[in-house]
Amino acid sequence: MSATPDLTLWGVGTSRTIRPHWAMHELGLSYKVKPIGPRTGETKTAEYTRLNPRQKIPLLQDGDFCIGESAAIVAYLSRTYSTPDRSLIPETQRELAAWLEWCFFIVAELDSTSLYVMRRHRADALGHIYGVAPEVVAQAGEYFRQQLRHVEVALADGRTFLMGDQFTSADILLTTCLDWAVAYGVCICDNAQPYLERIQSRAAYQQAVAANVPVAPITPAAAKV
């Protein structure tokens, strides 16, 4: 790991781009921002396509290394730049396994299977591309609430964060999904609401929200990716 990392983050304006912004603020890292947005044409330029042929945001450049996918970026930052004073990842093997389980669960069940399905079929989101389907949206919202019960059980034992007393990048993934769900009018469980409010009070979260604001306004249809 370089003593002075050369970090550049491509992407702002979505529930997924905020994740690496937040992780870097939690870790106290300095980085440059390329404030490109989704579905603006900016991800399809020759320059960006060379870096990320999938033409998606976010993308992290760490020197000559590039990595995409928000959860993968956050995991990379957590493994590479955590310190004893600022760590986003557990230390023991079993805690690491539990952390991975939470990360995979959040990305697969809450984000991709639930919230992004809603985004694809909402009239005010990507329905014009994938087809407006109110019943699909309603079922995806219900599935989100069903899966969120696992979070409710975990938080019911009085723990502060998903991993107990330690804030980790799993909390970053969960909070962005909860924010997204609230924006879509999905009710979150009783234990998740105070958890969300507690996490939103973190200085790094608020700094990330500010850093994730697009330079120019984006359309409502591009607000969630």
From TrEMBL:
Keywords: Transferase
InterPro entries: Glutathione-S-Trfase_C-like, Glutathione-S-Trfase_C_sf, Glutathione_S-Trfase, Glutathione_S-Trfase_N, Thioredoxin-like_sf
Domain GST N-terminal: 4-85
Protein's UniProt keywords contain Secreted: no
Keyword Transferase: yes
Domain GST C-terminal residue range list: 92-221
CDD domains: GST_N_GTT1_like
An annotated Gene Ontology molecular function: transferase activity
SUPFAM superfamilies xref list: GST C-terminal domain-like, Thioredoxin-like
Pfam families in UniProt: GST_C_2, GST_N
PANTHER family named in the record: GLUTATHIONE S-TRANSFERASE GSTA, GLUTATHIONE S-TRANSFERASE-RELATED
Protein name per UniProt: Glutathione S-transferase
